[in-house]
């Protein structure tokens, strides 16, 4: 459980235990099992399952490729966090599917390369949609917001942009510099535009990188997505075995 809950607060852990107890009670059991705990972590992280939310076949296929894109890009990036689970069962208020990634250990620092890999994998779902279907959908909205926040944090807070330099422009991240400094006359319009352009450059580079990775491993993407449509859920072992098998087959044919 500790491995599945890095960064959880005491309140988060208490919530997990309460959810696990409820799941056990619904089964008519007086004992909490490992599966109860794992399911409880998922519910806290991704929200409750919404099996009543029925997707049509085209939507289901798109979601399968979207989530497979996240997982595969994370797997291919040097610093990508391990994929614990991929699901196309709708959860929470908006998620039509999700990819659960869990670090091997709790981390308190991230390098520039690690953040770029995280941005790349975050954009992997959107990239998969474009590679496979030729256009994107509204399902990538939350991913784009997360990726933008990370890129802007790199530029404005962490001094990780060679173009802007080692400067901390904001204490708290904001999607747009104007939101962060609405009353700072010393931050010129020209400077804010320069920052926005740098954020855009980072996002575009990582998006193109994600598309390139998926295009180079298209057979693997197809296999993972097709099996995911069939099974609805893949755990870490199943996902990694699929990737390994396809890559071996490609090498044989090559």
Keywords:
254 residues, mainly alpha, Helicase, Ruva Protein, domain 3, Methane Monooxygenase Hydroxylase, Chain G, domain 1, 2 domains, three-stranded antiparallel beta sheet
**CATH 4th-level superfamily of the largest domain:** Peptidase M41
**Mean pLDDT figure:** 86
Number of individual domains:
2
N-end to C-end Cα span: 42 Å
Indicate the structural class: mainly alpha
Beta-strand content: under 5%
> Would you state the CATH class of the largest domain?
Mainly Alpha
Question: Level of helix content?
Answer: 55-70%
- As for the CATH topology of the largest domain, it is Methane Monooxygenase Hydroxylase, Chain G, domain 1
Topology:
Layout lengths: L9 H17 L7 H13 L10 H20 L6 E5 L10 E4 L10 H11 L1 H10 L7 H16 L20 H4 L8 H28 L1 H14 L1 E3 H18 L1
Antiparallel strand pairs: 1-2, 1-3
Characterise this structure.
The protein has 254 residues and is mostly helical. The chain has two domains: 1-46, Helicase, Ruva Protein, domain 3 (Orthogonal Bundle), CATH 1.10.8.60; 50-253, Methane Monooxygenase Hydroxylase, Chain G, domain 1, CATH 1.20.58. The chain has ten helices and three strands; from the N terminus they run H-H-H-E-E-H-H-H-H-H-H-E-H. A three-stranded antiparallel sheet has the order 2-1-3. The longest helix is centred in the C-terminal third of the chain and has 28 residues, at 189-216. The chain starts with 9 loop residues before the first helix and ends with a helix. The model is unreliable at 173-185 (pLDDT under 50).
Brief summary of the model shown:
With 254 residues, the chain is mainly alpha-helical.
């Amino acid at each position: 459980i500790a491995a599945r809950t890095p960064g959880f607060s005491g309140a988060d852990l208490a919530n997990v235990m309460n959810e696990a107890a409820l799941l056990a009670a619904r089964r008519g059991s007086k004992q909490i099992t490992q599966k109860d705990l794992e399911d409880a972590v998922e519910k806290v992280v991704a929200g409750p399952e919404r099996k009543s939310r029925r997707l049509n076949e085209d939507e289901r296929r798109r979601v399968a490729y979207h989530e497979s894109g996240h997982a595969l890009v994370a797997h291919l990036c040097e610093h990508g966090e391990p994929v614990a689970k991929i699901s196309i069962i709708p959860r929470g208020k908006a998620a039509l599917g999700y990819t659960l990634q869990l670090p091997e250990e709790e981390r308190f620092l991230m390098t520039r390369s690690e953040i770029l890999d995280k941005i790349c994998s975050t954009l992997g779902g959107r990239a998969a949609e474009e590679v496979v279907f030729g256009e994107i959908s509204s399902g990538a909205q939350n991913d784009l917001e997360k990726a933008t926040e990370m890129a802007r944090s790199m530029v404005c807070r962490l001094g990780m942009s060679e173009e802007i330099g080692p400067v901390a422009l904001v204490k708290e991240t904001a999607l747009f510099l104007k939101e962060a400094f609405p009353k700072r006359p010393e931050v010129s319009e020209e400077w804010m535009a320069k920052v926005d352009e740098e954020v855009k450059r980072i996002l575009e580079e990582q998006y193109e990188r994600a598309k390139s990775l998926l295009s180079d491993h298209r057979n693997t993407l197809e296999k993972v997505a097709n099996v995911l449509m069939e099974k609805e859920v893949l755990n870490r072992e199943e996902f990694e075995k699929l990737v390994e098998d396809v890559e071996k087959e490609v090498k044989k044919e090559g």
